């Protein structure tokens, strides 16, 4: 598995290359452009967009990066664990995600680098940069594929419900994926700066707030007029189905935003580590509340009959109901506007791996976005089983990006003079790294039967 391979790679370099950091620092041409405050820059690099994005827009962008289609699967995860255990796991994962962002920001401040891949380069040389770049590429391509799969299968149903038509060419999900990609996603993905997407991110989050309100207790009376509300005390303590072990990785993937943290930090106006940590904490706290409420409302409405995709569960009531249709439109809008945010780190990773010393060049910027969207569209259109494949890829690359890489980067980059290996912070990150490795391997070794519809919502 990719997860084991990447983890093994980092472990080997920790053991056999104690002086690799010094050697990497000597090779400045590849990483010099990322040094903050460098006075000898003469050309504009694609990472030089600093100090232009407000605090609020940064919160919107990071919150949109955190939020994804996973919010639709959290009610199903709660059905597997019960409310109390779900809340405990959600709290732990949110706290660990915030702490790992703190590790990234501290490493960034020490070496003056604001690129995830370059932190890998500074810690382990070229293999570290390639490992980080590959993990970002696989994780985010899998995420974008999941978003476009929602467009492919939900958009035709919405059009059918509104127009009451059948067998028209625009009812073909493949055509709709291409149209949405060309008309909406590609223009936004061509923006030069990530900060420009703050307005669309705010609108995307507003759509998900509407989704949350629509499944709130104020609406349950309307829903329950047609469907029985299963509410018992056992909801809070029951540990349901055999897939309980998958709840941990599902919750972990729900907070994946780490590849976007450093680009947003780069563009934050008057950026400091403390200010960026506030951005991260607010974004995680808001999504923590939205995740819990969405999972709770969906679970208490349908209890054991909740499906892996919450919209499908509500659609069983009445697929032509106006409120449910509006919720579907809101979710479609939200996931569509999330794709450009997720594409930015992939393009950056590709540039770091293939064009590390190149200045910003519009044709290359456009070409990478076009090729990525074309590749993802082909996957969604021609590979019906790609959901399971990218679910497994996401299950292996996401833990690396969230927990493993920040921990090992911190151990390697923070000087021993400042924090010895036996210091409390480094012992803590070592425990987090090893513990999460064991939890993730246990989760995916618990039952080899992984259904694609249960994974893709991560």
Automatic annotation (TrEMBL):
Membrane topology designation: Multi-pass membrane protein
CC terms in the record's Gene Ontology section: plasma membrane
Keyword Transferase found: no
GO molecular function annotation: L-asparagine transmembrane transporter activity; L-glutamine transmembrane transporter activity; L-histidine transmembrane transporter activity
Keywords: Membrane, Signal, Transmembrane, Transmembrane helix
InterPro entries, per the entry: AA_transpt_TM (IPR013057)
Pfam family, one: Aa_trans
Transmembrane regions listed in the UniProt entry: 55-77, 83-105, 130-150, 170-190, 202-223, 278-302, 322-344, 365-383, 389-413
GO BP: any one term: histidine transport
Leader peptide range in chain numbering: 1-26
Subcellular location: Membrane
Domain Amino acid transporter transmembrane: 52-434
Domain of life of the native organism: Eukaryota
Name of the protein in question: Amino acid transporter transmembrane domain-containing protein
């Amino acid at each position: 598995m990719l997860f084991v391979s990447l983890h093994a790679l980092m472990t080997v370099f920790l053991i056999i290359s104690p002086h690799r950091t010094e050697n990497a620092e000597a090779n400045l041409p590849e990483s010099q452009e990322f040094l903050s405050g460098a006075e000898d820059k003469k050309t504009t690099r694609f990472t030089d967009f600093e100090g232009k994005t407000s605090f609020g827009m940064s919160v919107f962008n990071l919150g949109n990066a955190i939020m994804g289609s996973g919010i639709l699967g959290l009610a199903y995860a709660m059905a597997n664990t019960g409310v109390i255990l779900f809340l405990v796991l959600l709290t732990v994962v949110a706290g660990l995600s915030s702490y790992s962002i703190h590790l990234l920001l501290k490493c960034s401040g020490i070496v003056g680098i604001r690129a995830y891949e370059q932190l890998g380069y500074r810690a382990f040389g070229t293999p570290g940069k390639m490992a980080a770049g590959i993990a970002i590429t696989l994780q985010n391509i899998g995420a974008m594929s999941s978003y476009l799969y929602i467009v492919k299968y939900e958009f035709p149903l919405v059009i059918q419900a509104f127009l009451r038509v059948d067998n028209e060419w625009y009812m073909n999900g493949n055509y709709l994926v291409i149209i949405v990609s060309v008309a909406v996603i590609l223009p936004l993905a061509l923006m030069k700066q990530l900060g420009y997407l703050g307005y669309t991110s705010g609108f995307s989050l507003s759509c998900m707030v509407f989704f949350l309100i629509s499944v709130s207790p104020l609406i349950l009376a309307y829903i329950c007029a047609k469907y029985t509300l299963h509410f018992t005390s056992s909801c809070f303590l029951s540990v349901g189905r055999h897939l309980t072990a998958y709840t941990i990785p599902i919750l972990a993937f729900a907070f994946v935003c780490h590849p976007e943290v450093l680009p947003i930090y780069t563009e934050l106006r008057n950026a400091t580590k403390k200010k960026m940590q506030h951005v991260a904490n607010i974004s995680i706290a808001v999504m923590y509340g939205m995740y819990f409420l969405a999972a709770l409302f969906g679970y208490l409405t349908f209890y054991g009959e909740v499906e892996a995709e919450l919209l499908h569960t509500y659609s069983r009531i009445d697929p032509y109901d106006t409120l449910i249709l509006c919720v579907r439109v809101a979710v479609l809008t939200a996931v569509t506007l999330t794709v450009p945010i997720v594409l930015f780190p992939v393009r950056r990773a590709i540039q770091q791996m293939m064009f590390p010393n190149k200045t910003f060049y519009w044709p290359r910027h456009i070409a990478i976005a076009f090729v990525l969207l074309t590749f993802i569209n082909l996957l969604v259109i021609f590979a019906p089983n790609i959901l399971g494949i990218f679910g497994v890829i996401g299950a292996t690359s996401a833990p690396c990006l969230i927990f493993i890489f920040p921990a090992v980067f911190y151990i390697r980059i923070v000087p021993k003079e400042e924090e010895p290996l036996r210091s409390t912070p480094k012992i803590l990150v070592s425990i987090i790294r090893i513990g999460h490795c064991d939890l993730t391997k246990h989760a995916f070794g618990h039952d080899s039967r992984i259904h694609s519809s249960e994974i893709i919502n991560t």
